[in-house]
Design goal:
The chain is mainly alpha-helical. Helix content is 39%, strand content 0%. It starts with 12 loop residues before the first helix and ends in a 25-residue tail after the last helix.
Length: 61
């Protein structure tokens, strides 16, 4: 009698290797993209908002 849902005689090695290779390719791509965008360094002059680096609140009009 055959058991339902079993993988008798089948190996998952190919699927596992493909998954690992996919993760490695994704990691390398992310590393290269972050490096091309300037890296992860943080400098005091860095700001991605118009009012991000100020010494105090904006002036009152």
């Amino acid at each position: 009698m055959a058991r339902s849902g079993t993988t008798a005689g089948k190996s998952n090695t190919g699927v596992i290797l493909a998954a690992v290779l996919g993760v490695v390719v994704y990691a390398v791509g992310t590393y290269v993209a972050v490096g091309a965008a300037g890296g992860t360094k943080i400098e005091p002059s860095y700001s991605n908002t118009p009012n991000g680096v100020t010494v105090g609140p904006p002036g009152f009009k």
